[in-house]
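User: Could you write out the 3D structure of this protein bound to magnesium ion? I've included everything you need below.
Assistant: Certainly. Input first, then the structure.
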Amino acid sequence: MELIELRNIYKTYHLGEIDVPVLKGVSAKVASGELLALMGVSGSGKSTLMNILGCLDHPSSGEYWLDGQEVGHLSPNERALVRNHKLGFVFQNFNLLARTSALDNVVMPLSYTNENISGRESRQRGKAILELVGLGDRMHHAPAQLSGGQQQRVALARALINRPAILFADEPTGNLDSHTSQEVLELFQRLNREEHLTIILVTHDPGVAQHAQRIIHIRDGVIDDTTAAPDGAHGISPTPQDSTAAPPRAGAGGTP
Ligand code: ADP
Ligand code: MG
């Protein structure tokens, strides 16, 4: 089943009397378990689209189906609930609390959910996720005592603490040097492969986008859904745009 389906999404901003049309009929599907890059030049509407996909904003018209629910017409409070339950975010600026340890940064979102989680359990969950991102030995360091790549990994751990279905990353390596970028992108690939995390990576940088298994280009307010990553080096199965792929075999395991 598709995790995401956009149907004819339009977004127009209104500046006084002036209409600024940005998205002009975007339709796309994303399957669960994909690592997808959303690419386009500056000003092409990537962040506008990511804000809609991330339930941070609503479309002017069109439908957004997320995990079987139409979420394009929810109220701001309802969108916040969807975000808390299903979505995680990392941004170019890591947005960590400066005087707070890595562990306390990571467990912070747990205090905003209405799940009743004890302090002990939240620390255990935080430690496990910090270990998952390779920072088990840095839990009590403050952000200033960590490198940029380590800070982004803390931000990633924080984004994952609520076990989201989808991780959105808007230019996540924009503040990192190329070696560190590579490490962070490899970590995304590993989480996608081993934890089956669906990741949508927003970037203007082709070198970043090539770490995805599929690239969606946004151009003139619509999606040009043609380019796939050339190397299938990550052992990832064909994606929905691969219309030449054979249909799934019946009885090959998994759900019918
Ligand atoms: P990208 O992330 O690809 O650089 P954006 O989605 O940020 O692009 O912006 C796309 C276009 O929409 C730009 O022309 C920008 O000026 C315009 N835009 C973005 N946000 C707003 C807003 N809140 N009000 C008016 N115009 C906006
Ligand atoms: Mg942007």
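Residues 46-47 surround magnesium ion (ligand 2) (CB under 6 Å).
User: Perfect, thank you.
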